[in-house]
Design brief:
alpha/beta, TIM Barrel, eight-stranded parallel barrel, 12 helices, NADP_OxRdtase_dom, NAD(P)_OxRdtase_dom_sf
């Protein structure tokens, strides 16, 4: 049996020169006032081999907390346990404004970056990403604002999130440094990055692909419709073969793509976070991988 190439080794964060774990940990649901419990979650991720931690300034309101709450909580942990920061590659995002909904003007980006750094208690983050594209700001203005922040030492690499192929290309045209990352929704049920050419663009430009909601917003864990049940059954078959659970098989399916996507795991339970390395175990044949794709598409490829 011939398996597709797969490496559990660290992956480059685009052309930034930074190496990160093949799986990231996301902080969309990172909430609460108990810093001890929150630190345990961070430590569980580190112990599981995770080095890339992805947050955003908008993480908070979805949990009934203020704007910036997740960043503030992480900042409090850094203040209490300063050694943790040295073991992490910190990524955050900005540009979503409640009620607007998006603002990537130079003035807003400057204050958003400064506000994130203040909440995190940091002078610099390794990766800063435009969370969603603002179609009312010229990409040249965005590029200058991000390069100014980079020149000031506030941000390391530059990334985009939820950008189309064309929007990424437009921003790159006006930048003098390479975009390092792109962050799309990608899972065995969310196939747009394959259809849209986003993964092809990532391979062409050398972008790291950070896949958000790799478990299809939990749908793959509780399948109800015929399509999802068929996909889950194929994932379960691989999970049983590798001695892992369905979530691990799902993450491994994503990572097997030659663009080497980095799934962002959002679990907030330390016991579940500890299982992250299981996703590095399954190996897929070409036929098995395509079977999942075709089941998700609901049709056979020509």
């Amino acid at each position: 049996m011939t398996y597709l190439p797969f490496s559990p080794d660290p992956r480059p964060l685009g052309k930034s020169g930074i190496m990160v774990s093949p799986i990231a940990w996301g902080m969309w649901r990172f909430s609460g006032d108990d810093t001890t419990a929150a630190r345990r979650r961070v430590e569980a991720a580190l112990e599981a081999g995770v080095t890339l931690f992805d947050t955003a300034d908008i993480y908070g309101p979805d949990n009934g907390e203020p704007f910036g709450a997740a960043e503030s909580l992480l900042g409090r942990i850094f203040a209490e346990s300063q050694g943790l920061r040295q073991r992490m590659v910190v990524a955050t995002k900005g540009g979503i404004v409640i009620g607007t909904p998006y603002d990537s003007s130079a003035a807003y980006l400057e204050q958003a970056i400064d506000a994130s750094l203040k909440r995190l208690g940091l002078d610099r983050v390794e990766l800063w990403q435009i969370h969603r594209p603002d179609i009312l700001t010229h990409p040249q203005e965005v590029a200058r604002a991000l390069e100014n922040a980079q020149a000031a030492g506030k941000i390391g690499a530059i990334g985009v999130s939820n950008f189309t192929v064309a929007q990424t290309a437009a921003l790159q045209h006006f930048l003098t440094v390479p975009i390092a990352t792109t962050q799309p929704e990608f899972s065995a049920l969310a196939l747009d990055p394959i259809r849209s050419g986003l993964l092809d663009q990532a391979m062409t430009m050398g972008l790291a692909v950070l896949a958000w909601s790799p478990l299809a917003r939990g749908t793959l864990m509780e399948p109800r419709d015929a399509r999802t049940l068929e996909v889950a059954a194929l994932l379960d078959r691989k999970a049983e073969e590798a001695g892992v659970d369905r979530s691990a098989a799902t993450l491994s399916w994503i990572m097997t793509h030659p663009a080497r996507p980095i799934p962002i795991v959002g679990s907030q339970r330390p016991e579940r976070i500890a299982l992250i390395p299981q996703a590095l175990k399954p190996r897929w044949t070409r036929a098995e991988w395509y079977a999942v794709l075709q089941a998700s598409m609901g049709e056979r490829l020509p």
